[in-house]
Design brief:
- There is one protein chain.
- This protein is α/β, with parallel strands linked by helices.
- The protein folds into 2 domains: about 180 residues, Rossmann fold, CATH 3.40.50.720; about 90 residues, N-(1-d-carboxylethyl)-l-norvaline Dehydrogenase, domain 2.
- Helix content is about 45%, strand content about 15%.
- It is built from 11 helices and 8 strands.
- An 8-stranded mixed β-sheet has the order 3-2-1-4-5-6-7-8, sandwiched between helices.
- Strand 4, helix 4 and strand 5 form a beta-alpha-beta unit.
- Helix 1 crosses helix 2 and helix 10 packs across helix 11.
- The radius of gyration is 19 Å and the shape is globular.
- Bound molecules: 3-hydroxybutanoyl-coenzyme A (3HC).
- The site of 3-hydroxybutanoyl-coenzyme A (3HC) has 18 residues, from helix 2 and helix 9.
């Protein structure tokens, strides 16, 4: 089954990035968000991202315009009934996701594949709330989605091999690199990344080195594009805190538990780039001060 018509639920950083990637690859995309203000923010993100892609010479201006025109956004699910695939990218709250899939399950034909972009919740828990657990999988994109090549295809115990094969082909079709992971907290990338970021915070807590020197060490010693603290600020400390709690719950290993400093920074509202302060200070344009 070839996927041409995609639905995306959520128009935040991930949802808008996913919509942009699918539309740029020629798919028809319909997006649902809760209110007009959120839809306006999603369009703003797409417009600035497409402008960067055009400026970098990776797409002609008319191609970018055509990609944008392939996306439609609304506050209802009305345009979802003919979708081949629906990708959910709403808040990481199990109840919110469950409600979205219950509604979609009533609306979409049995052939529609459902996927969640969750980075922390079990895919199987969502799959069994629908009548199509065999056509339900994880599709985990990375931030910023228009730039990061990887997409993890997550196979829950209920997901059929046919669904995995269809999704792998879809990921390649939209110009990304697929890998297949079992449905275990963190999948492949976050399973490696999260303990590393938590360890960086512990290195700081133990007074071994400063935020700047830890980032400089990783960027220059490992050639990572960002150090762990830049990446924490970029993806959001609240997300890291939430994911660490989920990991600790799943594995019961002390190294997965959120370090005290992370918990306190989240309590103080120092969530990173989005609140102007995390381990670094950020200006209105998202530039590090
Ligand atoms: N949209 C489109 N293009 C973008 C973009 C966006 N939002 N952000 C950056 N770019 C493009 C730029 O236009 C530029 O293109 P060019 O090389 O063709 O000129 C290129 O990406 C590099 O951007 P910049 O020069 O502005 O800045 P950097 O070189 O610092 O790159 C970065 C920015 C791509 C974000 C890079 O720092 C990076 O790769 N960081 C690591 C990001 C990462 O690890 N993400 C994964 C997070 S974990 C996750 O998402 C999992 C989840 O579950 C939490």
């Amino acid at each position: 089954m070839a996927i041409e018509r995609v639905g995306v639920v959520g128009f935040g950083a991930m949802g808008s990035g996913i919509a942009q990637v699918c539309a740029s690859a020629g798919c028809s995309v319909t997006v649902r968000e809760v209110d007009q203000a959120a839809i306006d923010r999603g369009w703003k993100g797409i417009d600035s991202s497409l402008a960067r892609v055009v400026k970098a010479g990776r797409m002609a201006e008319d191609e970018a315009k055509a990609a944008r025109a392939r996306i439609g956004a609304a506050t209802t699910f009305d345009a979802f009934a003919d979708r081949d695939l629906v990708i959910e990218a709403v808040l990481e709250i199990a109840d919110v996701k469950r409600k979205v899939f219950e509604e979609l399950d009533r609306l979409c034909p049995p052939s529609t594949i459902f996927a969640s972009n969750t980075s922390s919740l079990p895919i199987v828990d969502m799959a069994v709330t629908t009548k199509r657990p065999q056509r339900f999988a994880g599709l985990h994109f990375f931030n910023p989605a228009p730039v990061m090549p990887l997409v993890e295809v997550v196979q829950a115990v209920t997901t059929s091999d046919e669904t995995v094969a269809t999704l792998k082909a879809f990921v390649q079709r939209i110009g990304k690199v697929p890998v297949v992971s079992k449905d275990v907290a963190g999948f492949i990338v976050n399973r490696l990344l999260v303990p590393y970021m938590l360890d960086a915070i512990r290195v700081l807590e133990q007074g071994i080195a400063s935020v700047e020197d830890i980032d400089t060490a990783v960027k220059n010693g490992l050639r990572h594009p960002m150090g762990p603290f830049e990446l924490l600020d970029y993806t959001g400390l609240d997300i890291a805190y939430h994911v660490a709690n989920v990991f600790f719950e799943e594995f019961k290993e002390p190294r997965m538990a959120p370090p005290p400093l992370l918990k306190r920074m989240v309590a103080a509202g120092r969530l990173g780039k989005k609140t102007g302060r995390g381990f670094y200070e950020w200006d209105d344009k998202g530039i590090k001060k």
